[in-house]
Design goal:
18% of the residues are buried. This protein has 204 residues and is an all-alpha fold. The chain is globular. Helices cover 74% and strands 0% of the residues. The chain folds into two domains: 1-48, Homeodomain-like (Arc Repressor Mutant, subunit A), CATH 1.10.10.60; 52-202, Tetracycline Repressor, domain 2.
């Protein structure tokens, strides 16, 4: 099989995982489910991925790549941005990546632990690049920030991303539970919660 066909088959496996993830929980998706969805044998899938966690890790790597492309376009297309404009642009980019945020809200420790080292290295490279891209934006648009302040923003923002999805995409069951306990929880969109949080971080 040519490298082009191999890449195509790999993408088919990942796309099948995406489709299944729309209706099933991560823990309930199996390699068998994926193989049946695309009519490919399980042994064939194992030629590309040893575990379902590796498939999800590759999906997350793809989502990060798309996010980085959007961020780089935003940085290249502007000579300057105010704090508000920058926060809005990042919030919009996050709003465009709900799959990425949903994947991050899962147990990343288990996903990474059940993936081969070489797969994890590939993911960590793109993760590091996403942090570097945010740093490029801060360097270009906010000269008044010290290097320590930029680092503080980055290391506050990236852990924050892990909690965005569950705090903005509550299910009916979760909303009912909150209603029962009488807690007046303010639901926000991905855009709103990201914008408000970034504005807090950027204000000195």
């Amino acid at each position: 099989m040519s490298s082009e066909l191999k890449d195509k088959r790999k993408e088919e496996i990942i796309d099948a995982c995406v489709k299944l993830y729309e209706t099933k929980n991560f823990k309930n998706i199996t390699i068998t489910d994926i193989s049946e969805f695309i009519s490919v044998s399980r042994p064939s899938i194992y030629n590309y991925f040893q575990t379902k966690e590796e498939i999800f890790l590759e999906l997350l790597r793809r989502e990060y790549s798309l996010w980085i492309e959007e961020l780089q376009t935003m940085i290249e297309n502007h000579d300057s941005l105010t704090e508000e404009a920058f926060a809005k642009a990042i919030a919009k980019s996050m709003e465009n990546r709900p799959k990425m945020l949903k994947l991050l809200s899962m147990n990343m420790y288990d996903i990474e632990e059940n993936s081969r080292l070489e797969r994890l290295v590939e993911f960590k490279k793109i993760f590091a690049k996403s942090m570097e891209t945010i740093k490029q934006g801060l360097d270009k648009f906010f000269h008044y920030l010290t290097e320590e302040e930029k680092t503080d923003i980055i290391y506050a923002f990236f852990p924050f991303m892990y909690g965005v999805y569950p705090h903005t995409m509550a299910t009916d069951k979760q909303k009912e539970a909150v209603k029962i306990i009488g807690f007046d929880y303010k639901y926000m969109s991905i855009y709103e919660i990201t914008y408000k949080s970034l504005m807090r971080l950027l204000k000195k």
